[in-house]
Amino acid sequence: MKLRLPTEKLADVYHLARFIDKVRLQQAEKLPEDYQSSYCNPAGLDGLFFKAFQMEAKTLVQKIASSRDDQEIAEWFRSQTSSEQREKWNAFAVDLGRPGTALGERFKQVRAVKYPDLPDDWEGTVFEAIAHDERA
Fold first, then answer.
1. pLDDT tens-digit map of 66-104
2. Three-class SS of residue 91?
3. Are both 76 and 124 inside the same structural domain?
4. In terms of residue numbers, what domain contains 111?
5. Which stretches make up the DUF5069 domain (predicted)?
6. What are the pLDDT digits (tens) for 101-122?
7. Among 84, 96, 80, which Cα is nearest to 46's?
8. Could you tell me if 5 and 44 are in contact, meaning their C-beta atoms sit under 8 angstroms apart?
9. Tens digit of each residue's pLDDT (9 = 90 or more) over 15-38
10. What is the DSSP string of 4-42?
């Protein structure tokens, strides 16, 4: 199963579709090892996602596990979050990793290890790095 990019929206938000893919792979014990460290990591993209929506990781993981399909999860997610939260997250998320933004310093530290094909002077976002990495 190929993970959807974090820029693919579900329930009007970035990253939810990708997180669903990660949960399903994790539950099937097929999540690649290089994704394990970021799975539900409070210091990473998943953690920022949960924080933005004031949601516990286990709550969303359990909902994904018990749902028939993405549409059921999307409907539930919209019922648990406000349009203001979703809009705020989307505006925030697209710049993650840029110098001076959330994850900026952390991303700079892990970029060489996690995304070795990126140029040393690269100043793109986390979303752009993921897209670049998964195209390769």
1. 999 999 999 999 999 999 999 999 999 999 998 888 788
2. helix
3. no
4. 97-136
5. 3-134
6. 878 888 888 888 888 888 888 8
7. 96
8. no
9. 999 999 999 999 999 999 989 988
10. PPTTS-BTTBSSHHHHHHHHHHHHTT-S-HHHHTTTT-T
